[in-house]
């Protein structure tokens, strides 16, 4: 047992349940079920991975208490359907098989249920038209009482199926939260108005649940300690919610935000622009006012942060969501004293964004996510091979680590004097690049400490291939910045976004060509350094290359600063002291500037790839060398190439 974290790794008792440590797997779920709306093998393996990784509790997300009235999207399972008893029992057995306790997150969408999925107008505490234009009707008194009973019956079902505890979702904008939030409760009867009235439905649900499960069955309640959005409630109400629950439940789980407002989700799931432990202060303040144990969640990255939160009295336990997507074995690595082996989460939220966009979870740094079955049943290596990798960026490093793990002999060559490739931009000092720098440095350390032979300042040529005599050659040579055919684009005042560092000499006025993810991030960074920034983007919106959460973050950060944005605009000329831009209406503007930052994308180094292709019969192209995309695709490419070559 790791003695550096005595509190984090100590047991905690909730009602009649003793949990082996204080690291909980926060309620998450895959956005997919089988065609029969049951859990699939992939679902089971997803939760099994978290249990095997050492978490004390694995909470199953989005278990709907009343599917007919509370389903917010079609990939949610109803615990009120007796036909689902077998699939829930299988799920519980899967979690128990690796020594974790199983919890079911009991949820009801209420006003957030989309009518196209629900098949009728959704009902919530009050009637209104939401931000998406959907009409919501007010629940009747009978419906309110029935919804509370549904929570009670759902808890009884969960206990019957073998769950060890339940997590009542009373935050994030779902039904119970809707009765509390000033954004969604406009009633003037006993269910609305004063905070005491607005808490009535929550407390009724808890009474129904306690009556159904008894006193020795733990009830956890997940609340938003603050909605952290204009018009929503703040921490003072979060404290009142917790005080009302004190002594009636066994754990108060403090999150933040509401799904009712898009940007509030950023505080709910803190991104790279937010601080580590973004919502720890909410749990800390609430804990001062209650005797019930408190769980903190939100951007915990390292065991020392978790230990400190508990030691400081800010929380009794820590729930991890995305951190356990990036590395499901994080708890076990802490227990075994292998903290340095933890794969850091980027907090990029590719996991959640992928579920929204593609109905399947993926992770930027963990290539197994979305393919969890492979984690327990890796393809066998029929023959150990000598692998030569050209390029030490994210794809090359992942290929090296995967190959070493599978027993292959690896030689990794990198043209520069340091591994990391395109991730060198993480050194530019921008606060939002901290998570990327942590990941990059972690990968570099793992490669350097592995059995792989690393050759820096070495370009793979025919001579190198002839010397190494590899069975497999993997081209991970990356990409180069695109220089658009703009007059003046090669001038001395033009800098590529990837080359921008804290000490790069720039004048006061800067024009950024390209408003994708890189262009927006660099614009925010330059604005914070005191530069006057203008973004010129050809598409009709900035961050158009981003999925949901990065799109929200970047729009918010750009709008929060004095950054001028020109969309549907193209740069036609760059001079030493200006940029000429043609706008959508055909007008032309000359923008004075001292420097231009080029963020117009990258192109694969296809010429280098073609030089390498004939040098080895078994040849793979990975990462940006194949198609210039992002870290996630690079990491998956590197992993997949090694898995494939072992066939």
Low-confidence stretches: none
Biggest sheet record: 8 strands, parallel, barrel
Distance between the termini: 38 Å
Q: Give the overall shape, derived from the CA principal axes.
A: globular
Class of secondary structure makeup: alpha/beta
Q: Which strand order do you get reading across the main beta sheet? A: 3-4-6-10-11-12-13-14
The number of helical segments is 23
Radius of gyration of CA atoms, rounded to a whole number: 26 Å
Helix content: 25-40%
- Beta content: 15-25%
Output mean pLDDT. Answer: 94
- Strand elements, count: 29
What topology emerges from the helices and strands here?
Layout lengths: L11 E3 L2 E3 L3 E6 L12 H12 L4 E8 L2 H4 L6 E2 L6 H12 L4 E7 L7 H4 L4 E2 L3 E2 L5 E4 L2 H21 L3 E5 L5 H4 L16 H4 L1 H14 L5 E6 L10 H11 L5 E5 L8 H5 L11 H8 L6 E4 L5 H9 L5 E4 L1 H5 L3 H6 L14 H9 L14 H4 L9 E5 L3 H12 L3 E5 L20 H16 L3 E3 L6 H7 L3 E4 L3 E3 L12 E3 L12 E5 L3 H12 L3 E5 L11 H12 L4 E3 L3 E6 L2 E5 L5 E5 L2 E4 L3 E3 L1 H7 L5 E4 L9 H15 L2
Parallel strand pairs: 3-4, 3-14, 4-5, 4-6, 6-10, 7-9, 10-11, 11-12, 12-13, 13-14, 15-16, 15-18, 16-17, 18-29, 20-27, 21-22, 21-27, 22-23
Antiparallel strand pairs: 1-2, 8-9, 19-28, 24-25, 25-26
């Amino acid at each position: 047992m790791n003695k550096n974290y005595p509190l984090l790794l100590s047991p905690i008792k909730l009602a009649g349940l003793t949990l082996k440590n204080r690291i909980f797997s926060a309620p998450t779920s895959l956005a997919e079920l089988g065609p029969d709306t049951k859990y699939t093998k992939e679902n089971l393996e997803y939760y099994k991975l978290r249990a095997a990784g050492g978490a004390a509790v694995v909470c199953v997300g989005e278990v709907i208490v009343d599917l007919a009235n509370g389903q917010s999207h079609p990939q949610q399972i109803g615990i009120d359907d007796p036909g689902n008893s077998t699939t829930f029992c299988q799920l519980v057995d899967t979690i128990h098989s690796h020594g974790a306790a199983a919890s079911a997150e009991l949820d009801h969408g209420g006003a957030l249920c989309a009518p196209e999925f629900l098949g009728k107008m959704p009902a919530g505490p009050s009637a209104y038209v939401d931000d998406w234009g959907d009409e919501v009707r007010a629940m009747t008194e009978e419906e309110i009482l029935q919804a509370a009973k549904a929570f009670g019956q759902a808890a009884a079902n969960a206990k019957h199926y073998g769950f060890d505890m339940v997590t009542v979702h009373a935050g994030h904008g779902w039904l119970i939260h809707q009765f509390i939030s000033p954004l969604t409760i406009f009633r003037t009867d006993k269910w609305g108005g004063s905070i005491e009235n607005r808490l009535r439905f929550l407390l009724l649900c808890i009474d129904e649940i306690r009556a159904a499960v008894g006193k020795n069955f733990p009830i956890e309640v997940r609340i938003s300690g603050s909605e952290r959005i204009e018009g929503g409630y703040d921490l003072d109400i979060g404290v009142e919610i917790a005080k009302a629950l004190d002594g009636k439940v066994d754990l108060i789980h403090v999150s933040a935000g509401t799904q009712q407002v898009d940007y509030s989700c950023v505080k709910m799931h803190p991104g790279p622009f937010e601080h580590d432990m973004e919502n720890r202060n909410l749990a800390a303040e609430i804990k001062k006012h209650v005797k019930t144990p408190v769980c903190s969640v939100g951007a915990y990255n390292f065991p020392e942060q978790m230990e400190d939160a508990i030691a400081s009295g800010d929380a009794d336990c820590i729930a991890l969501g995305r951190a356990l997507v990036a590395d499901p074995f994080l708890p076990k690595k802490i227990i075994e004293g292998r903290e340095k082996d933890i794969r850091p989460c980027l907090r990029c939220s590719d996991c959640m964004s992928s579920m929204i966009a593609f109905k399947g979870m993926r992770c930027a740094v963990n290539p197994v996510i979305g393919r969890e079955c492979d984690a327990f049943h890796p393809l066998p290596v029929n023959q150990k091979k000598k692998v030569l990798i050209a390029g030490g960026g994210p794809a090359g490093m992942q290929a090296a680590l995967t190959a070493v793990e599978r027993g292959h002999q690896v030689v990794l060559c990198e043209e520069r004097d340091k591994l990391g490739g395109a991730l060198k931009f993480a050194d530019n000092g921008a606060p939002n690049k901290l998570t990327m720098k942590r990941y990059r440095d972690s990968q570099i350390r793992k490669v350097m400490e592995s059995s792989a032979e690393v050759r820096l300042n070495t370009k793979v040529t025919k001579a190198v291939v002839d010397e190494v005599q590899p069975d497999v050659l993997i081209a991970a040579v990356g990409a180069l910045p695109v220089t658009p055919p703009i007059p003046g684009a090669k001038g001395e005042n033009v800098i590529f976004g990837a080359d921008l560092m804290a000490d790069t000499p720039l004048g006061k006025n800067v024009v950024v060509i390209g408003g994708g993810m890189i262009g927006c991030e660099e614009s925010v960074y330059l604005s914070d350094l005191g530069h006057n920034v203008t973004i010129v983007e050809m598409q009709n919106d900035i961050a158009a290359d981003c999925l949901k959460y990065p799109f929200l973050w970047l729009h918010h950060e750009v709008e929060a600063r004095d950054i001028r944005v020109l969309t549907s605009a193209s740069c036609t000329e760059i001079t030493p002291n200006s940029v000429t831009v043609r706008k959508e209406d055909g007008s032309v503007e000359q923008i004075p500037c001292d420097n231009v930052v080029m963020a117009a994308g990258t192109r694969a180094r296809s010429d280098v790839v073609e030089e390498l292709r004939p040098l080895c019969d078994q040849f793979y192209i990975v990462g940006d060398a194949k198609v210039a995309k992002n870290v996630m695709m690079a990491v998956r490419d590197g992993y997949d190439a090694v898995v494939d070559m072992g066939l």
